[in-house]
Amino acid sequence: MANSIPIHNVYYLLCYAWNRLEQAAIADTSSLPTTKLADLFATVLCTGINHLARRGLEKCFNTQHETLSGIRGRIDFGGSLRKISFVQGQAVCLFDEVSVNTLANRILYTTVKQLLTFGELDRELRSRLRTVTRSLRDIEEIDLTDALFRKVLVSSNRAYYGFLLDVCEFVHNSWLVDEANGDRKFRDFTRDDAAMARLFESFLFNFMTRECRQWSVVREDIKWDARSVTDPELRYLPRMRTDISARRAGEYKIIDAKFYTNTLNSHYDVDKLHNANLY
Fold first, then answer.
1. What does the DSSP 8-state code read for residue 43?
2. Which residues of 141-167 are buried (b: 16+ CB within 10 A; e: fewer)?
3. 230, 234, 212: which is closest to 222 by C-alpha?
4. pTM reported for the whole predicted model
5. Are 49 and 27 in contact (CB under 8 A)?
6. What is the largest CA-CA distance in the chain?
């Protein structure tokens, strides 16, 4: 299954699904000499972080609290009196210092470090990732959690950061850790029909939204043509929600997005269509 979908195609499925097509074009994956997803994301992060470094990494102001012989920023009189700093010719000062140790940069750095622990990573890509880590000096690792990615604020003029953080979150959610020895394995989601079905639906929806501008593309609930005295709100009937509803002048289409490893379902050695598709 993994070999049946070119890795370059998987990349663009993801980029459409994330609605990050413009940012994705910066990384050329068309000639990637591998079919492994970990190698794909390592390539994208290498190219992307180098692109950010050339343009200037995101910076923030961190408040420092230090005892100094001179005066810098503002004096913390309470802290200075407690430490009896004035007697020693010193003062406790509060000052802002520019730093690249932002949350977004820490996530990028940590993801690169984690990819380096993956034993099956391409040798050349491993060397490139090590070079990237050296370019991210003064940035600290952080414990990655699902909630952490929700805390990152990316402005509209830093859209490429948003794209790389999407890649980092996908990598984070793809790790499988062997509890016996702690080794990391990369989950190949292309072998998971349910995951690929969700990806294909998101891809198709955003593809039509971007590329078929003459159509109005939405997801919608279709109301049942039914009435009930005992259940007037029809709560016991399943909700009919479309994958894609497309409208333009004089036309209305409902598109049901499907993805299967095998188009036909085998039952008692007889190939048949999937029942759900007929219903």
1. H
2. eeebeeebbeebeeeeeeebbbbbbbb
3. 234
4. 0.72
5. no
6. 92
Amino acid at 144: L
What lies within 8 Å, CB to CB, of 222 at 6+ separation is 240, 241, 242, 254
| Two structure tokens written together for 138 | 């003064």
* Cα separation values, 127 from 39, 119, 214, 266, Å: 12, 13, 47, 46
pLDDT in tens, 146-205: 999 988 887 766 788 889 999 999 999 888 776 666 677 778 788 888 888 889 999 999
- Distance (Å, whole) CA 143 – CA 111: 10
Whether 52 contacts 164, CB under 8 Å: yes
Q: What is the 3-state secondary structure (H, E, C) of the chain?
A: CHHHCCHHHHHHHHHHHHCCHHHHCCCCCCCCCCCCHHHHHHHHHHHHHHHHHHHCCCCEEEEEEEEECCCCCEECHHHHHHCCCHHHCCEEEEEEEEECCCHHHHHHHHHHHHHHCCCCCCHHHHHHHHHHHHHCCCCCCCCCCHHHHHHCCCCHHHHHHHHHHHHHHHHHHHEEECCCCCCEEECCHHHCHHHHHHHHHHHHHHHHHHHCCCCEEECCEECCCCCCCCCCCCCCCCCEECCEEEEECCEEEEECCCCCCCCCEEECCEEECCHHHHC
Distance between CA 56 and CA 62 in Å, rounded?
A: 18
Domain extents for the chain? 2-58+102-190, 60-99, 193-278
Q: What is the pLDDT of residues 62-98, one digit of tens each?
A: 767 678 787 777 778 888 888 888 878 888 888 778 8
Determine the Cα angle at 37 with ends 32 and 38, to 5°.
95
